[in-house]
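Subject: sequence -> structure tokens, single chain

Hey, anyone have a minute? Need the predicted structure for the following. Not urgent.
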Amino acid sequence: MDLQNAQRVAQAAARVAGEQIRTFIGRPAQTHQKSSPHDLVTEVDKACQTAIYEILQKEYPTSVLLGEESVPPGAAAATLAVQQVERDLLWVVDPIDGTLNFIRGLPACTVSIGLMVESVGRVGVIYDPMRDEMFSAIRGQGAYCNGRPMRVSTEADLSSSVLASGFPTGAYRGRNAEQIRRFGYHVRNVRAFGSAALHLAYVAAGRLDGFWENDLNAWDLLAGAVMVEAAGGRVTDADGAPYSLDTRHVAATNGHIHDQLLRDLNLDIPLA
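Reply:
Had a minute. Here:
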């Protein structure tokens, strides 16, 4: 398969969705609650996903598409959808990652498109339309931002690291908050931009040293996981197992601080 063509098609689809985000940010026509008051969707999310699907399927008519807005809300439904989906040629799409930011006019929302070929993540595209930054990667061929090569940071000390995380919409919200509190006193700083895909792109670009979050979905992670690894970083679940499409509790770092991060994510182990 021509992965460079797949990357170009994904970038084109991301730009179409990004134009919708730029047009309607801060003033979506309709907003609906999904699985909780923290989990929202707008008509723009749905329109962006439809536009992305049309572009991807025109070029790859036999491909399968898994997108946030085509799966019922809630972790159980998302897990089931991932377990059942065919992975031979699979696009995994989040049309607006950071919907709450989009609704409130906060310029930290992205389009995330990942491609699996024969169950392996091969291509990742994350587009930040508000900064017009196109992050992209092909496994084994490097990662780029607007055509410039990206590499993860070289920071090797967790205490000097800048990390990012978020606040899950479901049962793991409290655990994530406790982990943020725990790290707040033992790292240089913790950021929370409200978009997992953006966090992952920033790890790949060396702007962040690491990112973790609990209870995320495949469409939040695939593109960014491909990107971080292509930029020289490491992505696992919270127990250190290699990232897969089924991963929900994720840790992504420059690789140098990864084991330190995993150790301290375990709330049952006192900090050194």
